[in-house]
Structure formats: C-alpha cells, structure tokens
Amino acid sequence: MWWKLPLILNIALVLAIACTTTVEVTSTPTETKTPAPVSDEPTPRPSQESSTTTTTTTTTTINGGVTPEPIGGTPETDRNLRPIPNSGDSSVSRIPDTPTPTPDQILPKDTLGLILAVSGGSSNGTVKKLVTAPGTSAVTGTAFIGLESTSKSVVLFRADTGDATVIDSYTSPSYAPHFKRPYTVDDRLYVSNKFTNGGAMSITEYDTDDFSRESEWGTQQDAIDPGYAVAGDKVYFKTGSTEQWSMSRGFYNEPGDHMNSPFDSRWDTNEMAKPELGFAWVSGGDALYGARLPSKSNPLTGVFDVDPVTGQPDDYYLTAFEIEDWDTSHPSNWRNVVISDGFAYWAGFVEGSGGYKIEILAASLVNPDVFTVYEFDMPSSAAEVTGFNSTIDADSGYILIKPFYAGGDRSKVLIYDTLNETAEIVDTGFHIVDAQLLFIDG
Q1: What does the domain layout of the chain look like in residue ranges?
Q2: Per residue in 110-136, pLDDT tens?
Q3: Would you tell me how many other CB atoms lie within 10 Å of the CB of residue 178?
C-alpha cells in the first residue's frame, strides 16, 4: 500500500491511496500514521490552502502558522493542456483531425511526438532526414533516407502516423565511444552528447518548429549523464568518477562535485556546496527541484524546491509519500520523478497472475491535497513483458513508460493519456535506448 505524506517536521499525517480498477480514480478517507523522524531529509512542507480534489487530507501548521515560501516562487498552476477529444474517439487516434504541418514545421502543434535515442531498426512508416543549407544549421526541408541497421540516431517519431524524422545520426568509434540522448523540458528539446569512457559532455538545444540547432553548451569535466538538469537557462550537473583539472577555474574537480553553468556560457562554471541530503535534480522549466528517491532503509520519496544559486534543498517537501512492502516492490518502482505543468509524476509496476498492472501517481506541487492515482492493466502484446525502464517522461497529460519485452525487443513504448484515461502501446520499429515526449501546445 502506498502513502502520501504532505507532512510537517515530526508530525506525519499519512494518506492511504486506494487505486481503482481499469483507469478510474477513486479516493479513500484519510488515516493518521506517525513514522519515525528522519534527521537527514527535508521536512515536509506545511499544507497550502485545501481545495476539492480527487483525494483529500488534513493539514497542520507550525511555527505560529507561518508557511515558508518556496524558493524560486510558486509553480505555474495553469496546465494549459490540449483540448479533450470528442466522445467516441479511439485511443489510437487521440487527437482527431491532426493539424497539417506548415512547410517549416516538422511536428504540428497539438500533436504528440516521441524523441527517441535509437541504435538500429527502422520505422514502419516513412523515414526522413533534415536538409540544411550548405555551411549552416538552417533547415530547408526534409528528404527520404534509409538507416543502416547498426546506425545510432536521435529521431522524432510521430505516434499518429508512424513517420520518423532523423534529427541527428552519428557513429561512435571504439577509440572515442560516445552516446547522444534526448531531454525535453516543457516545449524545449535538448540532446546531450556524452563520451562514455569519462570526459566531456555537450548539450545542444534544437528549435521545435524546424528542429534546427539553436545553441550548444559543453563542459570538459566528467559530467554524469543522465543526471543533469536544465532549469532557468542554467545547466546543473554532477562530476563523475575521475578527478579532472578545470582550465576555467584553475583547480581539480573531485568526483561528486555539484556544478552549475549558464547555458549560453560554457566557460562560466560555478561549484556549489555539496548538500548533506542526497537527491536528484529535476527541472520544472524555469524552476529547479530536487527529488529524494526511496530505498529499503528509508522508503520515503518526495519533491522539494532547490535554491538555483546555492543548490541547497528547501526545508519542506512540496509533496511526498512513503512506500510500504518494500521487499515485494518491483525494482523499477518509483525510481524516477518527472515534473510537467506543475505536477510531479511517479510510476510503479505490480506483477500479477494475469500480467502487470501499472500505477501512475500525479501530485500537485502547488496544493499537496491534489494527489491522483491512475491504475490500469498493461495493454496486451504478442511478446511477454519482462520488466520496465525506471525512467519515465510526461508532457501535457501524456505519460511515457518504457517496457522490456522477451527476446530483447526494445521497439515499443507505452503512452498513457491522463485526460482520457487510455493506455496504448506504440511500436516504433526502432531499438530504443532512451525516449522523451514532446507535445507543443497550439
């Protein structure tokens, strides 16, 4: 059973969440539970003003009822999502009358796109490449191509048509192995290029109309990827396992240093004090957050503000919950947090006799009383599901999950639509190494 903890200091008010059958959300009354105090974690934030929501809870205040303000301001409350499709539309074509793209628009507005890091394979639809003007990065159009079975690429895949556009294709020689992976934040697309034997990493931002290169950031330090975040026009990253000399700052970087750097100035790198609490950076677009990931010794997970200058976590959780029955929990459960439109999302997987059930938790970062659970059966497929990638993504009410299938099949992703409460398996035809969502609101 999973528990939501919108708690304060040593007072823990635990909310039991009851999941419904196939993709309908229900709620249960609150009940009280007091876990042992944890000294090395952020203290849960006092509740903000309650409202009528999917799930409700009781809140308490401390320090004379004064509620600390979150660092960096309050997250945006207007989710500005796409319109709900007409009644009777199938889950395969969630957006009726898909807009026709203009000549300079590769992904139409209000159309779901998947940004894939792939290693081999090919789409069942058309595959195109971007054509640029000679000597520039300006995109002038697209042209049909065929990908080699061993090629590595970053690809835009349209779930509605099955068509793919290659954003970047590259080779990775044995003497300098490297890998490129996508990273989307709001309506922005970044692609990192990391040398896998330790060392430099660069991040390129792409325009999401014609997918031309807009700007690039890089570091010679052994940055950890995945694990960085781009928030408020800064890159936040941690150094890897090797000690390296910093030419710009004149001293050695030690493994585990916490760094930030303006995206438009790769030479201006700042070291931040390492916080006592270990956490993962999570971008909310303009705001920087931290997420404490659960462990058997401490099964609490939650999200809090992080000071964008010092890199230090706030004293209060914006939202949190506790995991019970850790010994029977799937190893990929709740291991990743993604923030979109002012909500934090987690995913868990429950194996049963009839296959897997999936739970998605959606928690508001503005009002801790808004805490929704979606539960549904894993859609059937000819191949058996053998596991799940722990990383997920979310954009405009869509959630992306990456299942593993028997026989090494990595071509499929699961898309869950929280507005229509429908789940769909999308077979891309590519061998997917990483994937992100991109939905540009019109």
Answers
A1: 1-33+43-64+284-412, 186-274
A2: 999 999 999 877 766 667 766 666 666
A3: 19
